[in-house]
Amino acid sequence: MSEVENRDQFGSRIGFILASAGSAVGLGNIWRFPFVAGENGGAAFVLIYLLLVFCIGMPVMLAEFVVGRRGQGDPVGSLRRVAGKFFTPLGGMGIFAAIVILSFYGVVGGWTIKYTVDALMGALGTDVPSAGAVFGNFVKDPKMVIFYQALFMLGTFGVVARGIGNGIEKFCTVFMPVLFLLLIVLAVRSVTLPGAAEGLAFYLKPDFSKVNGAMILAALGQAFFSLSIGIGVMLTYGSYLKKSEPIVSPAFQICFLDSFVALIAGLVIFPAVFAFGLEPGSGPGLTFVTLPAVFSKMPGGALFAVLFFFLLVIASLTSSMSQLEVICAYFVDDRKWTRSKATLTVTCLTFCLGIPSAISLGGGLNIAGKSFLDAMDFMASNMIMPLGGMGFALLAGWGLHAMAKEELSGSDGKPLAIYPAWRVICCVVAPAAIGWIFVTGLKW
Ligand code: PHE
């Protein structure tokens, strides 16, 4: 058997969709989306966000699937095989971004475990000041933050070390449906609270006066981060897909599930925040300070708090495993390491690189006015991911269009109806939009 035939694969289409949706659905949807939307004009932001997801995000995701499925390898190896050596830096940049993202993602993932434990013990605080004190004391305690970060990284390692079919696919097939169910239970609880309507209005009534370059860049960065595109994650997952499987309908389903979870997360958060007279635009603290206060006032809140933070743990784990997988795929496919050596080494490396982020919120480790963690997030989500996405779009649309045409053809060998639109988007629309948004909106 050749090396490529020996590669691990997704066992089923639904397994592939749930694993990719698991990568996409994460802290980005439940922690980041609501506060970024809250800071950027609510529904106006949401509308622009959805437009960018389906008109730019989905075509870029398809471009990654095309390269990955054809290249049958990690981002660097796939690009070398399908496009030539000249293009491997695009894969290298993706792997670098995955290392940066996993380093801080592991820290926030650790917070979600800590909050689930505290929710179980009823120790989250009873109002905004006390919940703020709980959060403040926690992030200022490096030992605790690093302990939970380590626990989270260990969980990620445990799944990825088992490989694709037995590790990532199995985990996501069991836990993604649990996540969807929990989210719906929480949304029903939130929108049926007395006084929820004001929050719904804030979330669903667009304020177009807030639309400007910086806001659109925030929406683009959010779309790329949330869909896990631009850094080769989807390329790598696509490389574990059987040749006979379609890629267009899964791409649509993944984008749909991802947007659905983000929208519903807003429905969980805003009505509840307004119902108890709290402020929605409270930044990253929304989930970890405002929500605990909300839960403490809500009938049945103790139980809902546990469900909510457990949901966050699942969402973050299914994303962090995809970040770890991209990096490990490089060492396994390209450097011929064993999977256990690669997962162990990369887990330890990203854990150590995460320590500055872990201590940055409490200790004031800043880079030009942003905490180290926020700076890493900004660099990866608002800079590398859009640029990488532009690279994949240009490459697939211009350089690899003949190959893409074959990959985007039906079983009868004819190109799918979506192909011409996809090509125009990849060649012109996505690069121009990303370039324009980047130039006008990039502000530290
Ligand atoms: N999409 C994930 C989220 O929304 C984050 C992520 C980014 C995952 C990049 C993989 C790669 O939280």
UniProtKB/TrEMBL annotation:
Where found?
Membrane
- NCBIfam families, A to Z: Na_transp (NF037979)
Q: Which GO terms describe its cellular component?
A: membrane
UniProt source species = Desulfoluna butyratoxydans
Record flagged with keyword Transport? yes
What Gene Ontology molecular function terms does this protein carry? symporter activity
**How does this protein sit in the membrane?**
Multi-pass membrane protein
Q: Which CDD domains match?
A: SLC6sbd_Tyt1-Like (cd10336)
Q: Which residues cross the membrane?
A: 12-31, 43-66, 86-108, 145-164, 171-191, 211-235, 256-278, 298-321, 342-363, 383-404, 416-439
Q: Which UniProt keywords apply?
A: Membrane, Symport, Transmembrane, Transmembrane helix, Transport
Q: What is this protein called?
A: Transporter
Highest taxon of the source?
Bacteria
Transmembrane helix is among the record's keywords: yes
Family from the record:
Belongs to the sodium:neurotransmitter symporter (SNF) (TC 2.A.22) family.
